[in-house]
Amino acid sequence: MALAMLNTGDTFFERKKERKERMKTYQFPWRYFVAALFFLALPVAQAQFNYVTNYVINSGYSITITGYTGPGGTVTIPAIINGYIVKNIGEDAFENNTSVTGVVFTNLPAYLSISVATSAFMGCTGLTNVIFGDVTNIGDLAFADCTNLAAVYFVFDAPTYQGSPFYGDPGTTVYYRYGTLGWGPTYGGAPAVAENAPSDFSYQLINGSITITGYKGTSQVVAIPSFINGYPVASIVNLPPPLGAGAFHAISVTIPNTVSNIGNYAFGGCLFTNIIIPDSVTSIGQNAFLECTNLATVTIPHSVTNIAPLAFQYCYNLANYSVNATNPAYSSSNGVLFDKAQKTVVDYPEALANGSYTIPNGVTGIVWGAFEHCTSLTNVVIPNTVTSIQIIAFEFCTNLASACFLGNAPPDAGSAFWGDPKCIVYYLPGTTGWTNVYGGAPTQLWYQPQPTVLSFEPSFGVQNNQFGFTISWATNASVVVQACTNLANPGWIPLVTNVLSNGTNYFSDPQWANYPNRFYRVSEP
């Protein structure tokens, strides 16, 4: 029988019969027989794509898909449609389709591979993932402006591409199988990550993200990866806590911006001199930087809202904290770490102390371990605004000789000055709550070089229609109280001379209401 030439005017059934007759007389290469087996194994994919009504027939029994009219969701690109090999996704074929959420390309051998044309999926804002089989080429802007595209998976070697296939896709990551060829740190404008690659890190996969628990490598320059085997690195910890050593012992460490948590003991024993914490980290755990003895400065970004006590314990050369001004939880002043309102001392760098430190007036609390191991601190002055000092706040400040309190005794935590053999707690005569021991340190009266008015006392001000205040100085010293009505042109008038028994005396003025203004001062006779 003579073979009729194939023409596009024939019906599908006529063409199919004609091709069948050809197969009787044409010697197909073995590879096409294998391909036919793939076709027979893919009836679901072929049926699923019946919504494709727009395609063109190419030479060589292949077609180019030019449009899609289906319901969306995850779309599988089949190997064949109506007996023709699918070789191309045409230009703009799926452009601006918002209903498609996933695309799966059938996994075929190389001679049945497919190409994706320019702008083929451009503007598919509902698309979240793409799985490629064998693809030979991806055109410029093929997946541009797919703003929710998170993951693109490749099975084989890196295909060629033009321009920037993933332009305008800020959250897209390309994943490829470890051992395939042609990949770099980026592909088509998106970061590229190897799946199932060997790693120098021990880790746990928890809720779809990686928690690094240790370092198995030997390099002194360590770059913590953003992804391990396709999963984002979100946390760095060291479980269980080590004895004197942590997960890393490197001179330099780079933390990627996928990490949100630096856990307990994460960088214990590291030898780096400074650390840049990315603006993705929200939490820093207890002893996270334990014994990082070369660490000199710490920069806290905007994102960190939780720093555990003793996060930087035994960092003997740490001299400065610098906090981003927009951080909502923390601030720094003269190198010291405070809460945002600077009401609480969070951590005092161990190498900052140069003898004496006066805690700023207005501070109300000192957290536990805030001054721990500040061995160069010899004297600290604590304002009367402080009402809370937590345990071991000044532990092992072995050269601390005096802690001078300007106010009443905060509740005694029991061990604020534990391990400070030289320390004496001094308090002003007339202040309250003191015993012979405070925080584990002995106490003594603190005699000032001149008389002091205790303006924070509850008895300060108007009491029983009289204005009064407590005067503190030295035991049995004499003090003159003077008054005037005009500070611009003062004429000080002595009102009374008092003897400060036990270093204190209470003064009150029954005549204060007789003057529009009344000012007082105290001095020696």
What does this structure look like?
The chain has four domains: 42-195, Ribonuclease Inhibitor (Leucine-rich repeat, LRR (right-handed beta-alpha superhelix), Alpha-Beta Horseshoe); 203-315, Leucine-rich repeat, LRR (right-handed beta-alpha superhelix); 353-446; 452-523, Immunoglobulin-like (Sandwich), CATH 2.60.40. The longest helix has 14 residues, at 12-25. Strands 1, 2, 4, 5, 7, 9 and 11 form a seven-stranded mixed β-sheet that branches. It has a seven-stranded mixed β-sheet with strand order 3-6-8-10-12-14-13. The chain is elongated and about 115 Å long. Helices cover 6% and strands 34% of the residues. The chain has three helices and 44 strands.
Summary, kept brief:
The protein has 525 residues and is mostly beta strands. β13 and β14 form a beta hairpin.
How would you sum up the major sheet? 7 strands, mixed
Shape: elongated
Q: How many domain regions?
A: 4
**SS class:** mainly beta
What is the annotated CATH architecture of the largest domain?
Alpha-Beta Horseshoe
For this entry, give a set of tags.
single chain; 525 residues; mainly beta; Leucine-rich repeat, LRR (right-handed beta-alpha superhelix); 4 domains; 7-stranded mixed beta sheet; disordered N terminus
Topology:
Elements: H1 12-25, H2 30-40, H3 43-48, E1 55-58, E2 62-65, E3 73-77, E4 80-81, E5 84-89, E6 100-105, E7 114-116, E8 129-131, E9 135-138, E10 151-154, E11 160-161, E12 173-177, E13 186-187, E14 190-195, E15 201-206, E16 209-215, E17 221-223, E18 227-228, E19 231-236, E20 252-254, E21 261-262, E22 274-276, E23 283-284, E24 297-300, E25 306-307, E26 320-323, E27 330-333, E28 336-339, E29 344-347, E30 355-358, E31 365-366, E32 377-382, E33 388-389, E34 402-405, E35 424-427, E36 437-438, E37 441-445, E38 452-453, E39 461-463, E40 466-472, E41 477-484, E42 493-500, E43 504-509, E44 519-523
